[in-house]
Amino acid sequence: MELVGSTLTATYAHPRPTPSNFLPAISTMASSYKNRFPHYSLTHSLSLPWRPSTYYKVAAITPTLAPFSKSSQGITPSNMLPFVSNRTALFNRYSPDDWYRSNLTNYKDSEASRHNAEKMRVDTSRMIQDKDQQTRKTQTETTKNIGERVNDIVFWKTELNHEIDGMIGETNALTEMKKRLERGLAETEGPLQVAQECLLHREKRMGIDLVHDDVEKQLLTEVDVIHSCQERMRRHVDKAMAQLAADRSAQHEMEKDLSDKQSAHRIDDKCHHLRNTSDGIGYFRGVERFDATVSVPESWAKFTDDNILRSQSERAASSKLRDDIETLLVVTANEMWNQFNRANVAFTNRISETADAKNKIQTHLAKILQEIFDTEMTIEAVRKAIREKGSSLKVAQTRLDERTRRPNVELCRDYAQLR
């Protein structure tokens, strides 16, 4: 595996070559030069008469120090063999050329090792510098990216605050318009009650006066107009309530988004100001492998943009509804007012007609009363005349009665008798 910041040609990236001529280490301890026991002849190599077949052969009796060896107990110095060096007894193991070649090989190996170590130190130093520069560059870029992220959060926070303020103003305006509409709806109950009472009182007319005239038609039309206006007002009140619910829902989503962005802004701003010398920094094992993100920059920006677009759409719908309510109030007021005026005109005309008829009837009544009076006076005069004719009647009847007493042929039906 290639190390970061190094190349595959680095000397420490390859195994160290094995020396072509490996010589075992030669002990230089005192035990290799001194032995209290006599030496034994070693078998010589057939190929190299001057080199033993083995590097050395262990003596049959392990050499030990005399005071501590059990085998030397009871032996006096006079019985001991004189000390003979193994080096003088054995022939030389290596030649001077071998010794020089071994040293030369060690020198070359040491030189190669030092050269490899030096190259490794240079490569390591360069790698440290590269990694240090890369770390500083990465940290600078990360700080810059966090700063840009903070700026993006500030931008969307500003947009959300502006839209929330607009939504609050629109909600308050729609609430006030809804209250006006409800007051207008309540105020229509008065004219409706008046029209219904007029119809009720007109039912008390008697006889020929209980007529289905223009006044009754206008009153019935006024009741229908008021009912129609009330129905339209109630529908717009329901629409206003639904729109207020939608406005508050959009406002709630934006406020929630704004709260999340305030928390994110506080965290990212803290991260943006963190330095290598800052307090509170530490190791968090495995945090780089834990990915708790739920969005990418595009979906993150789209989420807030969708909330703002939804709020703008709801504000536009709310503004249109306010205009519709304002128009409805004007239209319904004009309709009810016009119908009220038409009913009043009908009432005025009917009252005028009734007054004229009443005046005429009163005139005719006065004439009839005068005629009745005159007739009564005539009757009284007739009665007086009748009373005054009583004496004449008596005279006439007395004459007739007296003339009945005329004798025989004198009872003539003469002119005097007929009169």
From TrEMBL:
InterPro entries for this protein? Tektin-like, Tektins
For this UniProt record, give its keywords in alphabetical order, as a comma-separated list. Answer: Cell projection, Cilium, Cytoplasm, Cytoplasmic vesicle, Cytoskeleton, Flagellum, Membrane, Ubl conjugation
What is this entry's stated membrane topology? Peripheral membrane protein
Q: Which domain of life is it from?
A: Eukaryota
Q: Which GO terms describe its cellular component?
A: axoneme; microtubule cytoskeleton; nucleus; outer acrosomal membrane; sperm flagellum
The record's subcellular locations are: Cytoplasm, Cytoskeleton, Cilium axoneme; Cytoplasm, Cytoskeleton, Flagellum axoneme; Cytoplasmic vesicle, Secretory vesicle, Acrosome outer membrane
Which coarse location class describes where this protein primarily resides? cytoplasm
Per the record, the GO terms for biological process are: cilium assembly; cilium movement involved in cell motility
Quaternary structure, per UniProt, is: Microtubule inner protein component of sperm flagellar doublet microtubules. Interacts with TEKT1, TEKT2, TEKT4 and TEKT5. Interacts with CCDC38.
Family stated for the protein in its record? Belongs to the tektin family.
The entry's function note states: Microtubule inner protein (MIP) part of the dynein-decorated doublet microtubules (DMTs) in cilia and flagellar axoneme. Forms filamentous polymers in the walls of ciliary and flagellar microtubules. Required for normal sperm mobility.
Output this protein's name: Tektin
